[in-house]
Amino acid sequence: MKAAKYPYRFAVRTAFLTAFLVMLIVCMACPRAGAQAPVQTNGRSVALKGARLIDGTGRPPIENSVLVIAGSQIVAAGKAGAVSIPKDAVVQDVSGKTIIPAIVNLHGHLGLSNNGADSAAGHYTEENVARQLNKYLSYGVATVASFGQDEDLVFSIRADQHAGKIGGSRLFTAGRGFLEYTGKSNPADHRYRPQNSEEARADVRELATHHPDYLKMWVDDGLGHGTKIKPDIYRAIIDEAHKQHIRVFAHEYYLADAKSLLAAGLDGFAHSIRDQAVDSELIMAMKARGVFLIPTLVRDETLFAYADNVKWIDDPFFQSGLEPGALTMIRSPQTVEKFRQDPDIAKYRAGLEMAKKNLKRLSDAGVKIAFGTDSGIPGRFPGYLEHRELQLMVEAGLTPMQAIVAATGTNAGILGGAKQFGTLQAGRAAEFIVLDANPLDDIRNTEKLSAVWQAGKPVPAVSVKSTTTSASRQ
Ligand SMILES: [Zn+2]
């Protein structure tokens, strides 16, 4: 399968900075409350026993499990009695809890804002990107694939992370993505805009010198307001990228484009198909090459959520991760009016409904379903939206187990990391979320974070404040 052949590399894309009001995102790694006491291991192994273990492979949960951790790795996972606990292990009783792998977000963005909403240039710094990686991690999202809006600085940030100089969520990146040439230059937008296929090939070769984890391009006209990258150009991008052993993932919207991209050799869809129902021709073409689809349902929801003042804005789990002032901005009459007056708002709502139906149909047909949110764009809050996406996938008709597997084991496999992370098995990173309630009973229970672990240790998780400020609902 093509996916296995290419190294995992990522793309970032330059935002549609569609003037998404001003709110504040990106909180620092907040200290968390209500979790277990820190584990003092002094180099000894750790055994968590008694929890329900959902390992991310899709296998049934293990009730009364034992998870043995040595250093940063899992050394054993299984049913109590079937797993031996080292004599000197620090044993922690987590009976009544549920453990799932940390979330892998296959479609995020970094460095576009330092406050969550303001998309002005100048936020793309290592410090800001690291802050956002910590924000993701605090919500239990331990891997983020940045999708085509990064600057070249991302490659040194990635190198610094590999060298242990910065922490947070594990970073993958596409570097600079590919967009249609519009004739207008925007210094804040770092994407490649080739004007013909030769330029496209040269740009791909330039990108390849940075060793991106994959390539990202946009094939969309923004509901008719823009122009799409031309087929001869995207065919050249895909062909040249494959010559460089780089996989190509595309932002798409229309079924016809999806089919044309598949015929050109595309490796993955960054969003749902939203203009019409998917058909068997598309399904067969996707299955034939193992092409995945990232639904990003929450991306479509955020296009009208603030106009509707949706219920999750009241959710303390959402509010706890916001920068000071962000909530006030989301709820300000100006913000609400701006969203309400968007002439395309009815299309956004319809697009989400179509995306849900298509997700269910593709999943039932056996197409590979990945997981991602498009968070990190101003107005789309990293960390919380990953939990909301799981809920929307279940609303679409997937089981909680299917949604969790997409967000863990499947995504790790797509990133070439199946042997390193994404599932809770011997030899994988000890990177998981401890929950107070079972997400298989109700997917909203992924919000009941008791602890987030990375590299074999609990890390600061988002601190849920019990007070809500819902007074300004309108
Ligand atoms: Zn995106």
Features:
disordered N terminus, 17 strands, disordered C terminus, 474 residues, alpha/beta, 5-stranded parallel beta sheet, globular, binds zinc ion, 5-stranded mixed beta sheet, TIM Barrel
The CATH topology corresponds to TIM Barrel
Structural category: alpha/beta
Q: Report the C-alpha radius of gyration, rounded.
A: 21 Å
Q: How helix-rich are the residues, as a percent range?
A: 25-40%
Mean pLDDT across every amino acid position: 90
What are the distinct ligands in this entry?
Answer: zinc ion
CATH architecture: Alpha-Beta Barrel
Distance between the termini: 52 Å
Short description:
This protein is of the alpha/beta class and 474 residues long. It has 15 helices and 17 strands.
Map the helices and strands.
Elements: H1 2-5, E1 46-49, E2 52-53, E3 65-70, E4 73-79, E5 90-93, E6 98-101, E7 103-108, H2 126-138, E8 141-146, H3 153-162, E9 170-173, H4 197-208, E10 215-218, H5 231-243, E11 248-251, H6 255-263, E12 268-269, H7 280-289, E13 292-293, H8 297-301, H9 305-308, H10 316-319, H11 326-331, H12 333-340, H13 345-364, E14 368-369, H14 384-395, H15 400-414, E15 432-435, E16 449-454, E17 457-459
Residues 13, 107, 109, 147, 374 line the site of zinc ion (ZN).
